[in-house]
Amino acid sequence: MIKKLLLIFATIFCGVVATQTVNAQACLPTYTFACSSGDDIDDFSTTGGVTNITNLNTGCNGVLPNNYTIYPLTVSQVQGLSINISVQGSSTIWDQGFRIFVDWNQDNDFLDAGEDVWNSVIAADATAPPFTGTFAVPFTATPGNCRMRVVGRFAQVPATPCDAGSFGEAEEYTFNVIASTPCTVVNAGTALAAPNPPCPGTNIQLSLSGQTLAGGLTYEWLESTVSATGPWAPTVPPGTAPNHTLPAPLVQTWYACVVTCPATMNFDTSAAVTVIPGLYSPYSPCFCPPTYANGGGADNITDVVLGTLNNNTAAAGNPNPFWVDYTPQQAGPAPTLNIPNMLMGQAYNASVTMGGDGNQYSAIWVDFNHNYIFEAAEYFSSGLNAGANGTATITITPPVGASVGPTRMRVRGGDDVQMTAAQGCAATNSGWGE
Questions:
Q1: Which of 115, 119, 160, 109 is nearest to 137 (CA)?
Q2: Which residue in 408, 399, 289, 395 sits closest to 352, CA to CA?
Q3: What are the angstrom distances between the C-alpha of 132 and each of 45, 50, 194, 207?
Q4: 57, 73, 118, 215: which has the fewest Cβ within 10 Å?
Q5: Do you find a cis peptide bond into 237, omega within 30 degrees of 0?
Q6: Distance between CA 81 and CA 214 in Å, rounded?
Q7: CA 44, CA 244: separation in Å to the nearest integer?
């Protein structure tokens, strides 16, 4: 069942940098099949390094049996400091797991202690957020250019740098280790925050740019809800590294970092960064995605009617990824889909017509409190099987106290099994639907 996202309106409602390049070949992973079905490393990027990598929308590369590509891209970081990574495959159906290795001692393998630096723990498809993580450059890492390998595998996390499996892909990059020198005078640089503005309920990543890169430094992240000059208090949770992850603020907040060299008692406070939570928008990308393993023309939504909204999509079918966001058609000065008005405390009947399969269950969620979450209290359903090509009538009553203005409505239908109030996002009880 494709998830249709519709809008309603509530009117009341390694300090030397070596330059050698490592060319010797370490063992390679092997796969039985090409990665063209989306079992790939589509996006890989780093942040927080002295230099960083952004390699997005690359899809499937390399040839069997290795599905392996060396990219001429480099991330660099000082011994003892960390980098952040983000990785994701392209398939919205098939789960992918990932693992990263770095040849810190430049001996042309990834088998030494500490060279298995990060893994995704689980496998997930591209409807989920990208996998993210952090790892530090050991003080024992050999300064200069070494190799970093990213390995992906269908349905599970790769176990080794030379993993063998049915589907997957491997990518290799250069990691430049910058030697750490003892700190003396300190420059804290400028604080950065990403993403900014953040989605509610997510994390932000604080980092520094232009700061002193040396050994022996200490860090303390501070926050203020008053101004860029304070008053300041330690962040919650505390931040004691140049990169710091914490929950996105609910109000405008300034962040700065005090960098100290204990050996010389020199310290400096970075220029502050302002993080401003974005104003609510029903068109925002902050809403969680719905997922189905299968779609098809018989397990779909063919028409949704609510007030002045009438969206007949029978001709569109139910293509992968089995959900469609129709809110862009309701935006701007000349929308092609109407936005129905609803009054708080009044009941409205929505009709959801579905495909030809014999089991047709549906439900609707409306984000009445504008928190970007489809909550159990915002769930509406007849709870009945509408049958082949049947129409479900679902009564929606905006609660007294609902946030006024445009909001987001999600319609799920064509399911073989009735969904629960907690299944506005991700998978339902059925592998089929829209």
A1: 115
A2: 395
A3: 10, 18, 13, 15
A4: 57
A5: yes
A6: 9
A7: 20
